[in-house]
Amino acid sequence: MTRKRNFNLDSYYHVIMRGNNRQPIFGSHRDKLEMMRIFHYVYDKSPFEILAYCFMTNHYHLLIKSHRDPLSKIMALLNRRYSSSYSKRYNHVGRIYQRRYFAKKVDSPIGLLTVSNYIHRNPIETKQLMVERLEWYPYSSYPFYFEENKPAPPFLNRDVLKKHLPATFEKSNAGYCSYCLNHRPRVEADERTSTVYET
Fold first, then answer.
1. Whole domain around residue 110: which residue ranges?
2. Which of 13, 94, 95, 196 has the most beta carbons within 10 angstroms of its beta carbon?
3. What's the pLDDT tens digit per position in 18-42?
């Protein structure tokens, strides 16, 4: 029996979606662009706000808050639509996701900073660097913080995280980028355990 989840519409959640058996769910640049297109599509139907996102090869991360509907509805729309698109492109039979998405409420300013930092640092925390500089990774929200003049997706809110920066950092998106580069957070993000956010 599936346990019902309770979500607070006023809260942000760290969401992780993994590929089945940790297999790739994004095999190409086109796949990641398709996922971004689906985010726009779902946003128009069920509004949400994201502070950070990152699409890796076999999983993706979100720091997300729903504006109206349960998070479960948003995730179902995102994952069903992408799964259907993926199956058609690759003639794939069967599920592509490991299990239901993992979600943990983030209810403190330091939690928001730490989790968003963890999400944004994913491309440089792999065994083999995916990029040398975070702003070079195009499948993450970090480049939109790094270059404020760059038009951001309508669901990405770049005005929240900078307000919570420690006093040693300028409260700007440039200051937030500096924070990400100078802090290596420890975030235990496992579906089988509680999530711990530490600076």
1. 12-198
2. 13
3. 988 778 889 899 999 999 999 999 9
